[in-house]
Design brief:
This protein has helices at 42-53, 77-83, 93-100; strands at 6-22, 27-36, 58-76. By secondary structure, it is of the alpha+beta class. The chain has a three-stranded antiparallel β-sheet.
Length: 101
C-alpha cells in the first residue's frame, strides 16, 4: 500500500501553571493553561493569559511555572486541500495588502 502524503506543521505552545483566585469563594488554586507561542518572561505570558482566561469571578494572580511544548500536527494532503483556504501566491500584491491591515 502506497504511503499517503501528509501536510505537517509544528506548533509551539507555552503551558503555564497559574495561581488563580475565585473572588466569590476566596478559593486559591493553581491551574494549567495553554497559550500559543513561546514566552521568556512570566509577566508577558500573564498578560496574554489574562486577556484570554480571566473573568469577573476568576482572577489570574501569577505564573507559578512555564513549560514550552512543541507538537507536530498533520493531516492527509487531500483533507488539507479540501478544508484549507486558498491564498494568493507569496509575495503578490494581494498578500502585501493583507499584511498592512
Amino acid at each position: 500500500m502506497a504511503r499517503q502524503r501528509m501536510v505537517t506543521r509544528t506548533v509551539l505552545e507555552t503551558v503555564c501553571e497559574v495561581m488563580t483566585v475565585d473572588v466569590t469563594s476566596a478559593k486559591v488554586e493553581n491551574r494549567a493553561f495553554t497559550i500559543q507561542g513561546t514566552y521568556e518572561k512570566t509577566e508577558d505570558a500573564l498578560v496574554v493569559l489574562k486577556k484570554s482566561y480571566e473573568t469577573d469571578t476568576e482572577k489570574l494572580v501569577t505564573v507559578v511555572a512555564m513549560e514550552r511544548k512543541e507538537t507536530l500536527y498533520g493531516m492527509l494532503e487531500s483533507d488539507f486541500i479540501r478544508l484549507a483556504n486558498v491564498l494568493p501566491p507569496r509575495g503578490s500584491k494581494a498578500n502585501e495588502d493583507e499584511d498592512e491591515g
